[in-house]
Protein backbone atom coordinates (compact mmCIF):
# COMPACT_ATOMS: atom_id res chain seq x y z
CA UNK A 1 0.00 0.00 0.00
CA UNK A 2 1.40 3.45 -0.88
CA UNK A 3 2.29 5.86 1.91
CA UNK A 4 -0.21 7.84 3.94
CA UNK A 5 -1.02 11.31 2.68
CA UNK A 6 -3.17 13.66 4.73
CA UNK A 7 -5.02 16.32 2.73
CA UNK A 8 -6.95 18.93 4.73
CA UNK A 9 -9.90 20.31 2.77
CA UNK A 10 -9.58 24.09 2.73
CA UNK A 11 -13.35 24.32 2.30
CA UNK A 12 -13.48 24.11 6.09
CA UNK A 13 -10.98 26.96 6.46
CA UNK A 14 -11.54 30.71 6.65
CA UNK A 15 -11.93 31.86 3.05
CA UNK A 16 -11.16 35.45 4.07
CA UNK A 17 -7.68 34.28 4.99
CA UNK A 18 -6.92 31.52 2.51
CA UNK A 19 -3.18 32.12 2.33
CA UNK A 20 -2.66 31.90 6.07
CA UNK A 21 -5.06 28.95 6.36
CA UNK A 22 -3.14 26.99 3.71
CA UNK A 23 0.20 27.86 5.30
CA UNK A 24 -1.14 26.91 8.72
CA UNK A 25 -2.13 23.47 7.40
CA UNK A 26 1.30 22.97 5.84
CA UNK A 27 2.95 23.90 9.16
CA UNK A 28 0.67 21.41 10.91
CA UNK A 29 2.07 18.59 8.80
CA UNK A 30 -0.31 18.17 5.83
CA UNK A 31 1.05 16.36 2.82
CA UNK A 32 -1.45 17.76 0.32
CA UNK A 33 -4.02 20.55 0.28
CA UNK A 34 -7.43 19.39 -0.93
CA UNK A 35 -9.21 22.09 -2.94
CA UNK A 36 -12.94 21.59 -3.56
CA UNK A 37 -14.16 23.07 -6.83
CA UNK A 38 -17.97 23.14 -7.14
CA UNK A 39 -19.88 24.59 -10.08
CA UNK A 40 -23.46 24.78 -8.78
CA UNK A 41 -24.46 22.32 -11.51
CA UNK A 42 -22.79 18.97 -10.86
CA UNK A 43 -23.37 19.67 -7.16
CA UNK A 44 -25.81 22.07 -5.51
CA UNK A 45 -23.13 24.44 -4.21
CA UNK A 46 -20.63 26.96 -5.57
CA UNK A 47 -17.09 27.45 -4.32
CA UNK A 48 -14.04 28.72 -6.19
CA UNK A 49 -12.43 28.51 -9.60
CA UNK A 50 -8.99 28.71 -11.19
CA UNK A 51 -8.40 32.44 -10.43
CA UNK A 52 -8.48 31.75 -6.70
CA UNK A 53 -6.22 28.71 -7.09
CA UNK A 54 -3.79 30.93 -9.02
CA UNK A 55 -3.69 33.31 -6.04
CA UNK A 56 -3.08 30.55 -3.52
CA UNK A 57 -0.34 29.13 -5.74
CA UNK A 58 1.25 32.59 -5.80
CA UNK A 59 1.48 32.39 -2.02
CA UNK A 60 2.63 28.75 -1.79
CA UNK A 61 5.28 27.94 -4.40
CA UNK A 62 5.02 24.76 -6.45
CA UNK A 63 7.13 21.96 -5.02
CA UNK A 64 6.49 23.18 -1.46
CA UNK A 65 2.81 22.23 -1.47
CA UNK A 66 0.71 19.81 -3.50
CA UNK A 67 -2.70 20.98 -4.74
CA UNK A 68 -5.22 18.15 -4.94
CA UNK A 69 -8.05 19.69 -6.99
CA UNK A 70 -11.36 17.89 -6.51
CA UNK A 71 -13.44 18.91 -9.51
CA UNK A 72 -17.12 18.63 -8.65
CA UNK A 73 -18.07 20.09 -12.02
CA UNK A 74 -19.97 19.16 -15.15
CA UNK A 75 -17.83 19.13 -18.32
CA UNK A 76 -14.55 18.56 -16.46
CA UNK A 77 -12.72 18.71 -19.83
CA UNK A 78 -13.33 22.47 -19.89
CA UNK A 79 -11.14 23.41 -16.96
CA UNK A 80 -8.05 21.20 -17.39
CA UNK A 81 -5.81 23.83 -18.97
CA UNK A 82 -6.95 26.58 -16.59
CA UNK A 83 -6.15 24.46 -13.55
CA UNK A 84 -2.79 23.37 -14.95
CA UNK A 85 -1.93 27.03 -15.47
CA UNK A 86 -3.25 27.91 -12.02
CA UNK A 87 -0.75 25.48 -10.48
CA UNK A 88 -2.86 22.40 -9.78
CA UNK A 89 -0.86 19.21 -9.20
CA UNK A 90 -3.67 16.66 -9.36
CA UNK A 91 -6.94 17.05 -11.28
CA UNK A 92 -9.57 14.70 -9.90
CA UNK A 93 -12.70 14.62 -12.06
CA UNK A 94 -15.94 12.80 -11.29
CA UNK A 95 -16.63 9.58 -13.16
CA UNK A 96 -20.30 10.60 -13.40
CA UNK A 97 -19.52 13.95 -15.06
CA UNK A 98 -18.11 12.72 -18.37
CA UNK A 99 -18.49 10.00 -21.00
CA UNK A 100 -15.01 9.90 -22.46
CA UNK A 101 -12.89 9.14 -19.41
CA UNK A 102 -9.78 8.01 -21.26
CA UNK A 103 -9.46 11.15 -23.39
CA UNK A 104 -9.91 13.29 -20.30
CA UNK A 105 -7.15 11.40 -18.47
CA UNK A 106 -4.86 11.90 -21.48
CA UNK A 107 -5.68 15.60 -21.53
CA UNK A 108 -4.87 15.97 -17.82
CA UNK A 109 -1.55 14.20 -18.25
CA UNK A 110 -0.70 16.23 -21.34
CA UNK A 111 -1.29 19.36 -19.25
CA UNK A 112 1.31 18.11 -16.75
CA UNK A 113 -0.97 17.10 -13.86
CA UNK A 114 -1.73 13.80 -12.15
CA UNK A 115 -5.16 12.40 -12.97
CA UNK A 116 -7.67 11.22 -10.40
CA UNK A 117 -11.18 9.86 -10.80
CA UNK A 118 -13.82 10.27 -8.08
CA UNK A 119 -16.87 8.08 -7.60
CA UNK A 120 -20.02 9.16 -5.76
CA UNK A 121 -21.49 6.86 -3.09
CA UNK A 122 -23.89 5.20 -5.54
CA UNK A 123 -21.29 4.54 -8.25
CA UNK A 124 -19.74 1.06 -7.98
CA UNK A 125 -15.99 0.60 -7.69
CA UNK A 126 -16.07 -1.58 -10.81
CA UNK A 127 -16.83 1.55 -12.89
CA UNK A 128 -13.16 2.57 -12.65
CA UNK A 129 -11.44 -0.83 -12.86
CA UNK A 130 -10.52 -0.46 -16.53
CA UNK A 131 -9.34 3.10 -16.03
CA UNK A 132 -6.98 2.38 -13.13
CA UNK A 133 -3.93 1.56 -15.29
CA UNK A 134 -4.10 5.14 -16.62
CA UNK A 135 -5.05 6.82 -13.33
CA UNK A 136 -2.84 8.18 -10.55
CA UNK A 137 -5.59 8.06 -7.93
CA UNK A 138 -9.15 6.95 -7.28
CA UNK A 139 -11.30 8.97 -4.87
CA UNK A 140 -14.07 7.05 -3.14
CA UNK A 141 -16.53 9.65 -1.83
CA UNK A 142 -17.75 8.92 1.66
CA UNK A 143 -20.53 11.56 1.52
CA UNK A 144 -22.67 12.88 -1.34
CA UNK A 145 -20.43 15.60 -2.81
CA UNK A 146 -21.47 19.22 -2.31
CA UNK A 147 -20.96 20.21 1.30
CA UNK A 148 -18.47 19.88 4.13
CA UNK A 149 -19.47 18.69 7.56
CA UNK A 150 -21.60 15.70 6.54
CA UNK A 151 -21.71 12.28 8.17
CA UNK A 152 -19.19 9.64 7.03
CA UNK A 153 -20.87 6.82 5.06
CA UNK A 154 -19.37 3.60 6.36
CA UNK A 155 -21.24 1.60 3.72
CA UNK A 156 -18.80 2.93 1.09
CA UNK A 157 -15.93 0.95 2.70
CA UNK A 158 -16.49 -2.28 0.71
CA UNK A 159 -15.65 -0.26 -2.42
CA UNK A 160 -12.32 0.79 -0.89
CA UNK A 161 -11.62 -2.83 0.08
CA UNK A 162 -12.43 -4.01 -3.43
CA UNK A 163 -10.11 -1.45 -5.00
CA UNK A 164 -7.29 -2.09 -2.51
CA UNK A 165 -7.35 -5.85 -3.04
CA UNK A 166 -7.23 -5.45 -6.82
CA UNK A 167 -4.75 -2.57 -6.89
CA UNK A 168 -2.25 -2.78 -4.00
CA UNK A 169 -0.14 0.16 -5.22
CA UNK A 170 -2.92 2.59 -6.12
CA UNK A 171 -3.42 5.88 -4.27
CA UNK A 172 -6.96 5.50 -2.87
CA UNK A 173 -8.45 8.66 -1.39
CA UNK A 174 -11.48 8.99 0.85
CA UNK A 175 -13.35 12.26 1.30
CA UNK A 176 -16.23 13.24 3.56
CA UNK A 177 -16.74 12.98 7.29
CA UNK A 178 -13.23 11.74 8.09
CA UNK A 179 -12.02 12.41 11.62
CA UNK A 180 -10.49 10.65 14.57
CA UNK A 181 -13.83 8.83 15.04
CA UNK A 182 -14.08 7.41 11.51
CA UNK A 183 -10.49 7.05 10.28
CA UNK A 184 -10.11 3.44 11.42
CA UNK A 185 -12.90 2.26 9.10
CA UNK A 186 -11.21 3.93 6.11
CA UNK A 187 -7.69 2.88 7.07
CA UNK A 188 -8.74 -0.74 7.68
CA UNK A 189 -10.44 -0.82 4.27
CA UNK A 190 -7.16 0.28 2.67
CA UNK A 191 -7.46 4.00 1.99
CA UNK A 192 -4.14 5.86 2.12
CA UNK A 193 -5.05 9.42 1.05
CA UNK A 194 -7.21 11.02 3.69
CA UNK A 195 -9.18 14.21 3.11
CA UNK A 196 -10.48 15.94 6.22
CA UNK A 197 -12.16 19.32 6.42
CA UNK A 198 -14.06 19.67 9.65
CA UNK A 199 -12.00 16.90 11.29
CA UNK A 200 -8.79 18.95 10.98
CA UNK A 201 -9.80 22.62 10.77
CA UNK A 202 -12.23 22.44 13.67
CA UNK A 203 -10.01 20.22 15.82
CA UNK A 204 -8.65 21.78 19.01
CA UNK A 205 -5.17 20.92 17.79
CA UNK A 206 -5.01 20.47 13.98
CA UNK A 207 -1.41 19.27 14.13
CA UNK A 208 -2.40 16.51 16.50
CA UNK A 209 -5.45 15.67 14.34
CA UNK A 210 -3.28 15.30 11.23
CA UNK A 211 -0.76 13.16 13.11
CA UNK A 212 -3.56 10.91 14.40
CA UNK A 213 -4.99 10.38 10.89
CA UNK A 214 -1.52 9.50 9.62
CA UNK A 215 -0.87 7.12 12.51
CA UNK A 216 -4.12 5.25 11.80
CA UNK A 217 -3.18 4.70 8.14
CA UNK A 218 0.36 3.66 9.07
CA UNK A 219 -0.92 1.23 11.69
CA UNK A 220 -3.03 -0.51 9.02
CA UNK A 221 0.02 -0.75 6.76
CA UNK A 222 1.93 -2.71 9.41
CA UNK A 223 -0.83 -5.34 9.65
C1 LIG B 1 -17.56 17.45 -0.02
C2 LIG B 1 -16.11 17.81 -0.29
C3 LIG B 1 -15.22 17.47 0.84
C4 LIG B 1 -15.49 18.23 2.12
C5 LIG B 1 -14.97 17.41 3.25
O1 LIG B 1 -18.27 17.52 -1.20
O2 LIG B 1 -15.65 17.09 -1.42
O3 LIG B 1 -13.85 17.62 0.47
O4 LIG B 1 -14.93 19.49 2.16
O5 LIG B 1 -15.33 18.04 4.43
P1 LIG B 1 -15.57 17.22 5.76
O6 LIG B 1 -14.28 16.58 6.11
O7 LIG B 1 -15.98 18.28 6.71
O8 LIG B 1 -16.65 16.22 5.50
ZN1 LIG C 1 -13.46 17.04 -1.75
Topology (elements, then pairings):
Blueprint: E1 5-8, H1 18-27, E2 32-38, H2 50-59, E3 66-72, H3 80-86, E4 90-94, H4 101-110, E5 114-119, E6 137-141, H5 157-166, E7 171-175, H6 183-189, E8 193-196, H7 198-201, H8 206-222
Parallel strand pairs: 1-8, 2-3, 3-4, 4-5, 5-6, 6-7, 7-8
The protein binds D-xylitol-5-phosphate and zinc ion (ZN).
CATH class group = Alpha Beta
Strand content: 15-25%
> Under the CATH scheme, which architecture would be assigned?
Alpha-Beta Barrel
Helix content percent band:
25-40%
CATH level 4 superfamily: Aldolase class I
* Unreliable sequence segments: none
Sheet with most strands: strand arrangement: 1-8-7-6-5-4-3-2
The kinds of small molecule bound in this structure are: D-xylitol-5-phosphate, zinc ion
Textual characterization of the structure:
The chain is of the alpha/beta class and 223 residues long. It has a single domain (5-221), classed as Aldolase class I (TIM Barrel, Alpha-Beta Barrel). It has eight helices and eight strands; from the N terminus they run βαβαβαβαββαβαβαα. The chain has helices at residues 18-27, 50-59, 80-86, 101-110, 157-166, 183-189, 198-201, 206-222; strands at 5-8, 32-38, 66-72, 90-94, 114-119, 137-141, 171-175, 193-196. Strands 1-8-7-6-5-4-3-2 form an eight-stranded parallel beta sheet. The protein is globular. The model has no long low-confidence stretch (mean pLDDT 98). The protein binds D-xylitol-5-phosphate and zinc ion (ZN). Zinc ion binds next to strand 2.
